[in-house]
Design a protein that fits this description.
Helix content: over 70%
Structural class: mainly alpha
Strand content: under 5%
Number of domains: 1
Distance between the termini: 76 Å
Length: 97
């Protein structure tokens, strides 16, 4: 009889472990879905941030060009910085080709 009781106890323990495993798998799936949602939100916000920064740069440039002579020097410096950035991008693309 003792063997039967031990076997029943082991079966019960295994069933409990299987339920815990199933619950853990369900939780992992839920967390992965939430993670993907958050990653998508982050990508969207990063894109929006990049767009706002570009708009700010453009607005600063427009203000500098349309403003006084002192602002024109700042605009020229900004344009030169943008050209250097474009040249750096072209150089990186050329290295990949």
């Amino acid at each position: 009889m003792a063997k039967g009781h031990v076997i029943e106890s082991l079966v019960s323990d295994v069933e409990q472990l299987m339920k815990l495993h199933d619950n853990a798998l369900a939780e992992v799936a839920t967390l992965r879905a939430k993670n993907e949602e958050q990653s998508a939100k982050i990508r969207t916000l990063q894109t929006q941030l990049k767009e706002v920064r570009n708009e700010l740069k453009e607005q600063s440039l427009r203000n500098a060009i349309g403003g006084a002579t002192a602002n024109k020097a700042a605009a020229k410096a900004q344009i030169n910085a943008l050209l250097r950035e474009v040249e750096a991008c072209i150089a990186m693309v050329s290295k990949r080709i």
